[in-house]
Structures are given as structure tokens and as C-alpha cells.
Design a protein that fits this description.
The chain has 245 residues and is an all-alpha fold. It has one domain. The chain is 78% helix and 0% strand. It contains 9 helices and no strands. Helix 3 crosses helix 7. The longest helix has 34 residues.
């Protein structure tokens, strides 16, 4: 298994596209935080600043989710998955090595972004920002978990559809478009309470400092989101193991 993980890391780290996307994922929130720190002229509370970091880092998490898609669909698209399976006949080793590398990279990148962003904010913004304030540390940890979840979700979608554009569209358009439409339909039908059970709506509970009474809460929302992620990923792994490469 270690050899399979090492091989996946070599494959990932030698692609220029991987580093370009990682730079974009890291740079976007850092630039926003830096500009905010330089231009803001009023004090920020810890909760407000934490939510600025998490809101901008959601973009990073989606970019890393896209990398999760590419980790598998690129192999199927270029037919490199066949020699890979030929070299490692036990498909589970290859199929599990890919998400291990992707999740490790996503967690490391987002954790670094959060640490640097918080350091920039405390140095540049007015006010007394403290990680000990209510919900702040949990929200910052939540964005790291969200990035991990989206990476796994992207990988699972890639396994299921094996088509890069389609998998990326599902990953990105579901939170940006589909859930908004579904939530609107629930509202029109008088079923507002069902909105909390939408996967991304539940996931976003992990990255806010304060919660309203009509939400699942940080732990409940995170658990519900990861149940969706694990179902999609597990079904994708099962499907990839059973059908032809």
C-alpha cells in the first residue's frame, strides 16, 4: 500500500496542473484576507474574521474538490488506468491510494491557509481577535474538514461518472445552483425545515461561528454531510472495482 501511495504522490506532484490549482487554492483566500486587512477601517470581532476566512476558503475547498475529480477521471480519460491496474492487479490499493494522497494534500493546504490568514488578520486588522472566542476555532477546523469532504466527494463522483466535465459540473453546480433551486421549492411548498437536510447546507454549518435554531448545528451538519460523502465514495469504489477499466 505504501508503494501505491508513493506512486500516486509522484504522479500528482509531477503534474504542472496540480501545482497551478494548489497555488490558486492557496492564493485566493490569502489575497482577500490581505486586502481586507489593508483596507478595513473598523474593528473586527473574532467571529467576523473567522467567517471571512472560512467564506473565502470555501473557494479553495471547491478547487481541491476539482483536483479530487481529476485524480481519477484523468486516468480514465487518457486510458492510463489500464496499465496502472496491470501493474497493481489488486485494484483496491490503487483506488484507495489516490484519495489518501488527495486528502492529505487538501488538509495540509487548507490548514496552512487558515494559519497564515489568521496571522495576517491579527497583524493587520483592528480589534482583538482570539482563537479562544466562542465558535472561532471550531469554524476554522470546520473549513479544513469541508475541504477534506469535498476532495473525497469529487473523487467519488469521478469514479461514478468517469467524465471530467460532468463530475466537476455536479461538484460545483450542486451548491451554487441546484441546492438553491431545491431550497426555493421547499420554501414555496411550506417545507422550509427540509432545507437543513440538503448536503451542502448541512456542510456549511461546520464553518460558521454562530448557528440559528433551524440548522442542524456544527456536529450534526458535519456528520450528515460526511454520510453523503461516504455513500458516494463507497458506491464509486464498489462500481470501479466491479466494472471494466
Amino acid at each position: 500500500m505504501i508503494d501505491a501511495v508513493r506512486a500516486e504522490w509522484i504522479k500528482f506532484s509531477t503534474l504542472v496542473s496540480s501545482w497551478v490549482m494548489l497555488i490558486i487554492a492557496a492564493a485566493f483566500p490569502l489575497v482577500i484576507v490581505l486586502l481586507t486587512g489593508l483596507l478595513a477601517d473598523q474593528p473586527w470581532t473574532s467571529a467576523e474574521y473567522a467567517e471571512l476566512i472560512t467564506a473565502t476558503t470555501v473557494v479553495s475547498a471547491l478547487v481541491l474538490g476539482t483536483l479530487g475529480v481529476l485524480a481519477i477521471t484523468a486516468d480514465y480519460g487518457h486510458n492510463t488506468i489500464r496499465p496502472t491496474f496491470a501493474a497493481l492487479p489488486d485494484r483496491w490499493r490503487t483506488l484507495l491510494a489516490k484519495p489518501i494522497v488527495q486528502v492529505a494534500v487538501s488538509a495540509a493546504v487548507v490548514a496552512a491557509v487558515v494559519v497564515v490568514s489568521w496571522g495576517l488578520g491579527t497583524a493587520l486588522l483592528e480589534g482583538d481577535q482570539s482563537l479562544g472566542d466562542s465558535g472561532v476555532s471550531a469554524a476554522l477546523l470546520g473549513i479544513v474538514l469541508l475541504a477534506v469532504g469535498l476532495t473525497l466527494l469529487g473523487y467519488g463522483l469521478g469514479l461514478l461518472v468517469r467524465n471530467t466535465p460532468l463530475a466537476i459540473c455536479i461538484l460545483l453546480l450542486w451548491p451554487l445552483v441546484v441546492e438553491g433551486i431545491v431550497a426555493g421549492l421547499f420554501s414555496v411548498a411550506g417545507w422550509e425545515g427540509l432545507q437543513r437536510w440538503l448536503p451542502y447546507q448541512a456542510a456549511f454549518n461546520m464553518i460558521v461561528a454562530d448557528h440559528s435554531d433551524d440548522q442542524l448545528g456544527r456536529v450534526g451538519g458535519g456528520v450528515w454531510f460526511f454520510l453523503w460523502v461516504l455513500v458516494v465514495t463507497a458506491f464509486g469504489l464498489w462500481f470501479a472495482k466491479r466494472r471494466d477499466a
